[in-house]
């Protein structure tokens, strides 16, 4: 029997400004982090794991696909019409901070940037699509990185407060659903993305990361309180990357190791943003790793007062942990660590595919927090082939998404309060982790390639029609 999703369930798709907008120097926009990240899997992954990145561009050596993205900046009407054709109830997008404040520390915003998002929101509402807006999605203004050291610096809280105040006041009649920081808990693995800095050294990485996270916790809480005052009907959520953590076997040492790794990654940030306080388990971790958080007076009170209304998260993979592991056992594609799970297949990029893990994730989160949940990223990055007749038969994507939506349905049946689902990369865009066009997620194919060629023409994949049917049947036809 098919599981019925709740009435008014928010079906849709998800994107980020830096991966699809392009127009990186148009409309008064300043440079941000994504603008200086080179394309290509090896180049991008090396930067993510290295220390000491200088945040400079070298166009003689690298390509920078984020500069053009898929030109959503000029083609948003065409794309939104396609989303509406699929029946989207919501569309997750982010605002590029450097479109609103080009350097990040100005006192007055850039009107051209504000007006662009006005047009996008108006177009979405014209088609009956509810915007779901991420305030900070791997797009720290470059000036804040170079001049202030990114989120290591307490001053960024004030700059962020000014930014959110402006966008809340500007869009209070147009945007109800907001997310503060994208995949905030991923920062300890990839501070470059989330915190806007490359660790000074491996020895200082954890200290710097947790200090930066503390500043983001305060900034997020300020944003929640401001949002509730400026937009009383607003719903403001946190956004986590979630990966259920399994023990490799029933050896108690491995089980305990999996518990420790899982709660640190999956629950630490959630506990602070949802419960409003640092969890007890983090004290021992800080002590054992010589981490001391510099807290300003009133920080903990601000965090306590600024808890989120709902929890959103990305789900791509689970994680399998073993206390003692050899290099051969490590799961190559699983960016958040762990060992290979012998029971799971993997994508073209080595990401292990585990639909049941999504049901586990939903149950774990809801059992712990009892807050409404949204799955705001989930999808399959794959190579797509355009047939001679122009069709794209991406049955592998349909199978992947169908299995994960079934798992969501099971979680709903379990009693989880799930309010929405936005598949990642509903239209092909630039991959964040690898800087590639060829790693495609979308229901909509974009004629653009890793060498920079392509017409940017949009076309519907087989999954486009499948997802349209999923939405129209409220998840019954999978």
Automatic annotation (TrEMBL):
It is an enzyme of class 3 (hydrolase). This is 6-phospho-beta-glucosidase. Belongs to the glycosyl hydrolase 1 family. GO terms for biological process: carbohydrate catabolic process. It comes from Metabacillus arenae. Keywords: Glycosidase, Hydrolase. InterPro entries: GH, GH_1_N_CS, Glyco_hydro_1. GO terms for molecular function: 6-phospho-beta-glucosidase activity. Signal peptide: none annotated. It comes from the Bacteria. Its EC number is 3.2.1.86. One of its GO terms (cellular component) is cytosol.
